[in-house]
Automatic annotation (TrEMBL):
InterPro entries: Cof, HAD-like_sf, HAD-SF_hydro_IIB, HAD_sf. PANTHER family: PHOSPHATASE YKRA-RELATED, PHOSPHOSERINE PHOSPHATASE. It comes from the Bacteria. This is Phosphatase. Pfam families: Hydrolase_3.
């Protein structure tokens, strides 16, 4: 629910920002008002971090533009504090073996991601093309054995919603989070942005009540509920808004700047 007149806090806080649909608008652009608001936040001495489903190689442009060197990547599986990797939670090889066989039997592509790159289990697929293009990347190269001998922190599974239930039932130890009508993020068991945030705030000496987080999608639910001050974007679905303590404006209507004012972090 919105709180319109929260007092400006005098305490140092840590603020987490999702990227797609939160910092970046629907055209994958960073609004000037969001950039200026984050710079003001940093100028006041608050800690700022990213919390995203993206791989480290997919978030660097935003991180560099905003001068941010701490982040939660892969929906919590990869945590970097001030440029230093402090926590990782890769898949077990056995889980990827079984998931790969099952997806291949069903004709569903997978994209394997590590910190540096991504590869596809199929040479080309229209669902992969549409989803990866929406992130402004090309269809990943083909390498169905990319996960062998590498640390994989997240996979993307490409199928429509009625088809994903069989995966949820068969792989109860993994986490499945839909982010597109054609795709889900698949995470190691117990993985979430909330678990990654817990690692970072512990190292930085913050309490969850001193943490703020902005998000707009289903992979933000645990994060918004974990921190003391969860802020949903106006473009978020209703279930995400209901999980948050506050709701700000849409990403393309100065949602970041207005949200930071709403919770009292900016005057």
């Amino acid at each position: 629910m919105p709180v319109l007149n929260a007092p400006v806090t005098g305490r140092r806080a840590i603020v987490f920002f999702d990227i797609d649909g939160t910092l970046l608008d629907h055209r994958k652009r960073l609004p000037d008002s969001a950039k200026e608001a984050i710079q003001a936040l940093q100028g006041l001495g608050h800690e700022v971090a990213l919390a995203t489903g993206r791989s480290p190689f997919m978030l660097q442009r935003v991180a560099e533009e905003l001068g941010i060197d701490s982040y939660i990547g892969f929906n919590g599986q990869y945590v970097v504090m001030k440029g230093e990797r402090i926590y990782t939670n890769p898949f077990r090889k056995e889980d990827l073996d079984e998931l790969s066989r099952f997806a291949a039997a069903n004709g569903h592509p997978l994209v394997y991601l590590n910190a540096d790159s991504m590869r596809s289990s199929m040479t080309h697929h229209p669902y992969v093309e549409e989803c990866i293009t929406s992130l402004e990347y090309a269809h990943p190269p083909y390498d169905p054995e990319y996960f062998l001998g590498r640390s994989i922190y997240q996979t993307m599974l490409f199928c429509e919603e009625p088809e994903d239930q069989q995966y949820r039932e068969r792989f109860a130890g993994l986490s499945f989070v839909r982010w597109h009508p054609f795709s889900l993020d698949v995470l190691p068991g117990g993985g979430s942005k909330a678990s990654g945030i817990a690692q970072l705030i512990h190292r930085l000496g913050f309490d969850p009540e001193e943490a703020f987080a902005f998000g707009d999608n289903l992979n933000d639910l645990e994060m918004l509920q974990y921190v003391g001050h969860g802020i949903a974007m106006g473009n978020a679905p209703d279930c995400v808004k209901q999980a948050a303590k506050y709701v700000t404006a849409d990403v393309d209507r100065h949602g970041i700047a207005r949200g930071l004012q709403m919770v009292g972090l900016l005057p």
